[in-house]
Amino acid sequence: MPIKIPDQLPARDVLRHENIFVMPESRASTQEIRPLKVLILNLMPKKIETETQFLRLLSNSPLQVDIELLRIDNRRSKNTPEEHLNAFYRQFEMIEKRNFDGLIITGAPLGLVQFEDVVYWDHLKKIMEWAKSHVTSTLFVCWAAQAALKLIYNLPKRTREDKLSGVYQHEIRRQFHPLLRGFDDTFLAPHSRYADFDTEYLAQNTDLDILATSEQAGVYLAATKDKRNVFVTGHPEYDADTLHNEYMRDVKEGLEPVMPVNYYPDNNPENPPRASWRSHGHLLFANWLNYCVYQQTPYDLENFSEDKFNKDED
């Protein structure tokens, strides 16, 4: 089944070129079906690139998914045309009285910034608190996962001395967990972060189900036992050249970055990188949509109740 997006969203042409079934609003309105309502809070600077990456992953599902895009505030963007934001993004005040099946909060380039110094920190806390009673399952990606650990478990910000950048091998730790259904015992995934997600530390200080880890990168995937909060510390949405573009940006800025690990063929930046994580990225998002969202959400979103989930856990 398709994802439903606004007719003029730039991602539409990109995804159609990739033979991904995208349904415009005009056609979706004629179908008698209850699509999943998924909200994407896009915190990344290059919003068009990021929204296309996430829409690509959300498309690989038999479920029809109705996407809405959310911006964190109304500050002018340096990397995204204001016309695009005004046309396709909602302000939180426009949707806060509604319920959603799923929420995705993307990463943000804030690895070296303290939480209290983040301009929109209070607003982000408000949205995360709102999600408890208005969203069936929330997926936190990279920096958002670190922020959620602070807001849900009151864990302090833990920062690595050096940036973790590259494609790392991971092992699954709970073979029969729904989010890992169909996963190989080991799989590759990209990381690009300063945030530290130490496996032992999270195991000792949270009640999370730790689902996949890496010896070098720590925890990659974790979830609360009710599956209402899912933490992904890497970037399964990244295109093949995203790490390359970040690396070259840092080189040009004189930051002397470490070359991304296990990324370039023969460890030579002159060789075009190849994506080795697409299949598990698609599988992860399909599993999240199916087992954490579709299987858990009420048919009538007006009947959403946080108490329902608490009773289910009891």
TrEMBL record:
- InterPro entries the record matches: Class_I_gatase-like (IPR029062), HST_MetA (IPR005697), MetA_family (IPR033752)
Q: Where does substrate bind?
A: K163, S192, R249
Record's GO cellular component, any one? cytoplasm
Q: What is its EC number?
A: 2.3.1.46
Provide this UniProt record's keywords sorted from A to Z: Acyltransferase, Amino-acid biosynthesis, Cytoplasm, Methionine biosynthesis, Transferase
Q: In which pathway does it act?
A: Amino-acid biosynthesis; L-methionine biosynthesis via de novo pathway; O-succinyl-L-homoserine from L-homoserine: step 1/1
Query: What Pfam families does the record tag this protein with?
Result: HTS (PF04204)
- Judging by the UniProt lineage, the source's domain of life is Bacteria
**What is the protein's major site of localization?**
cytoplasm
Q: Name the site position(s) for Important for substrate specificity.
A: S192
Q: Which GO terms describe its molecular function?
A: homoserine O-acetyltransferase activity; homoserine O-succinyltransferase activity
Catalysis: reaction(s): L-homoserine + succinyl-CoA = O-succinyl-L-homoserine + CoA
SUPFAM superfamilies linked to this entry: Class I glutamine amidotransferase-like
What subcellular locations does the record give?
Cytoplasm
Biological process according to GO: L-methionine biosynthetic process from homoserine via O-succinyl-L-homoserine and cystathionine
Enumerate the active-site residues.
C142 (acyl-thioester intermediate), H235 (proton acceptor), E237
Residues at site: Important for acyl-CoA specificity? G111
Task: Please explain the role this protein plays, according to its UniProt record.
Answer: Transfers a succinyl group from succinyl-CoA to L-homoserine, forming succinyl-L-homoserine.
Family, similarity comment:
Belongs to the MetA family.
- Specify the protein name: Homoserine O-succinyltransferase
Q: What organism, scientifically named, is this protein from?
A: Vibrio eleionomae
The gene is metA
